[in-house]
Amino acid sequence: MKTIIINASPRNNFNTALLLKEAAKGAEEVGEVKYIDLYDLSFSGCVSCLSCKNKAAKVQCRCYHKDDITDIINEIYTSDHLIIGSPIYFSQVTAGFRAVMERAVFPALSYNDYKSTFGGKVDVDIFLTMNVGKEGYEKMYKDKFAGEFGSFGLLNGKVNIYPFCDTLQVEDYSKYNMAGFSEEHKRKVHEEEFPKCLEMAYGIGKGIK
Ligand SMILES: Cc1cc2nc3c(=O)[nH]c(=O)nc-3n(C[C@H](O)[C@H](O)[C@H](O)COP(=O)(O)O)c2cc1C
Predict the structure, then answer these.
(1) CA of 41 to the centre of ligand 1 (A)
(2) Spatial contact of 164 and 127, defined as CB atoms under 8 Å apart
(3) Is the Cβ atom of 117 under 6 angstroms away from ligand 1?
(4) Using a 6 Å cutoff on CB, does residue 8 contact ligand 1?
(5) CATH number for 192
(6) Which atom of ligand 1 is nearest the CA belonging to 17?
(7) How many domains does the chain have?
(8) Pairing between β-strand 156-164 and β-strand 122-129 as defined by DSSP bridges
(9) Could you tell which of 5, 15, 18, 88 is best to mutate to test the pocket of ligand 1, judged by most ligand atoms within 8 Å of the CB?
(10) Which of 55, 58, 129, 152 has its CA 20 to 30 A from that of 13?
């Protein structure tokens, strides 16, 4: 069992990363794990070189654009499980998450018949952390993200989306112009709910859903 875990938050030790590190602990129980802090690397999204669709390409489902994440993208295809996490920025995943999605999924899309060119199977679990609460997520984001991330299905595995809502955005709200948030509420959710989220992340890493 091989799991690749990608932290698509620019913060390497906050909500998204803490959840992913817990998932990594779970995944280590059942196999090999590779953990990547995406924003430590230099990369872009798909540059439309179309090398993955070139008739002369030796391997069809492969990203040929060269930068720091080329090997990581291609390693996804030899993994059993991809766990990728992102904070929500302006109701979207981060640009980094988007780059990974473009680079990993486009080579798997056949422009001959719109089916998958990928012969393997990778289950994809997506962790999303955000300020909005569970109700807001259901109303604003749930259906939208289910549609947007459905394209990971071209990797032939199951695609699951896990929202982690109402996160603590900073350690000390009094230091910032963030009066629109109740620190008391944020801290309460963090203390009561976040430990359960960490436990859930561990289980997801271990393959318990
Ligand atoms: C630029 C920016 C935009 C954000 N936009 C949203 C948003 O549209 N909806 C939301 O619920 N949270 C939003 N947030 C809050 C983050 O999604 C939330 O704090 C997240 O848990 C941060 O993840 P991290 O701790 O891993 O960095 C935004 C944060 C930043 C920095």
Answers:
(1) 21
(2) yes
(3) no
(4) no
(5) 3.40.50.360
(6) 26
(7) 1
(8) parallel
(9) 88
(10) 152
Up-side HSE of residue 130: CA atoms within 13 Å toward CB?
Answer: 23
Cβ of 190 below 6 Å from ligand 1: no
Look up the domain containing 29 and give its range. 2-206
Q: Are 36 and 4 a contacting pair, CB within 8 Å?
A: yes
From the CB of residue 166, how many other CB atoms can be counted at a distance below 10 Å? 23
Atom of ligand 1 nearest to the CA of 168: 19
Query: Which helix H or strand E contains 18, and what residues bound it?
Result: helix 15-30
**pLDDT truncated to tens, each residue of the chain (209 aa)?**
999 999 999 999 999 999 999 999 999 999 999 999 999 999 999 999 999 999 999 999 999 999 999 999 999 999 999 999 999 999 999 999 999 999 999 999 999 999 999 999 999 999 999 999 999 999 999 999 999 999 999 999 999 999 999 999 999 999 999 999 999 999 999 999 999 999 999 999 999 76
Determine if ligand 1 sits within 6 Å of the CB of residue 131.
yes
Ligand 1 site, residue 86, Cβ cutoff 6 A: no
